[in-house]
Amino acid sequence: MAHDSLMHETHPLIGHRVRDTASGQTGQLNGVVREPVGAGEDRRYVRVAFIRLASGIEFSTAADNIEAT
Fold first, then answer.
1. 3-class DSSP state for residue 63?
2. Helices (H), strands (E): how many in the chain?
3. Which of 18, 29, 42, 48 holds its CA 20 to 30 A away from the CA of 65?
């Protein structure tokens, strides 16, 4: 996936209703970012998805856990 300078991915499901397979919650996908974990030679990046529930509360999950509903 392509991403901008802030590590936000251009994900095809942004703005669409998705389900987090880990928690079973559904909401609107607001963004997917690559976040650094670790330091130095051990640094790696994980993809994190941000989902907003109907209540307005937003939560994050691993990007691999999302699926379209």
1. helix
2. 0, 5
3. 42
Pair of tokens at residue 48: 């994190």
Cα distance between residue 5 and residue 2, in whole Å: 10
pLDDT digit string (tens) for 2-60?
A: 655 567 899 999 999 999 999 999 999 999 999 999 999 999 999 999 999 999 999 99
Quick one: which H or E segment has residue 40? none
Closest CA to 45 of 31, 32, 55: 32
Provide the 3-class DSSP secondary structure of residue 41.
Answer: helix
pTM for this one? 0.86
Give the residue carrying structure tokens 């590590």. Answer: 7
